[in-house]
């Protein structure tokens, strides 16, 4: 998969809903009902971060949920890419980008949303062919004003800002011409996941799905 093809696929996913849930799940038994609640609420694209021992099992379970598109976040190494793809991930997300990681995703035909926080990082990815990127960590990097400033001289790049994004500030990002969607964890609060309050999560997802862009 070329970087250009990866960006085309990433853009399609980013346009499915205004918010991509960023999920850190410790218990794989929660995976299926969580995915079902989010999809039912209008958020079909799900990012499962590889931050817990259960993450790959969570991806396997969510990959079976009708209407959902599950991907792997926090990809750091080629080994992560292979494991995520084998588990059923249909896309990848990384906090930054290295040549080895990019090459691994291209080799495995896994569309990647590579992370960038500065104009230089964004330009290096653009030079390789990635026109859809993750702006991370969004709030710590200056928030929506910073992303707007980056977009002015590099309008050909579209972003999914993640990191500190909430229901309150999501509209600031979604109102920018260079933002396709945002990534956020607020739609799946840890306490709601732990208690199995799927109705609450579905309601949060539905609220997020109605955000304008």
Question: Would you kindly provide a brief summary of this structure?
Answer:
Helices cover about 45% and strands about 15% of the residues.
Describe this structure in words.
With about 210 residues, this protein is α/β, with parallel strands linked by helices. It has one domain: Aldolase class I (TIM Barrel, Alpha-Beta Barrel), CATH 3.20.20. The chain has ten helices and nine strands. It has a four-stranded parallel sheet with strand order 3-2-1-9. The chain has a three-stranded parallel sheet with strand order 6-7-8. Helix 2 (about 30-40) links the parallel strand 1 (about 20-25) and strand 2. Helix 2 packs across helix 3 and helix 4 (about 80-85) runs parallel beside helix 5 (about 100-105). The longest helix has 12 residues, at about 5-15. The radius of gyration is 16 Å and the shape is globular. The mean pLDDT is about 95.
Structure characteristics:
single chain; 213 residues; alpha/beta; TIM Barrel; four-stranded parallel sheet; three-stranded parallel sheet; 9 strands; 43% helix
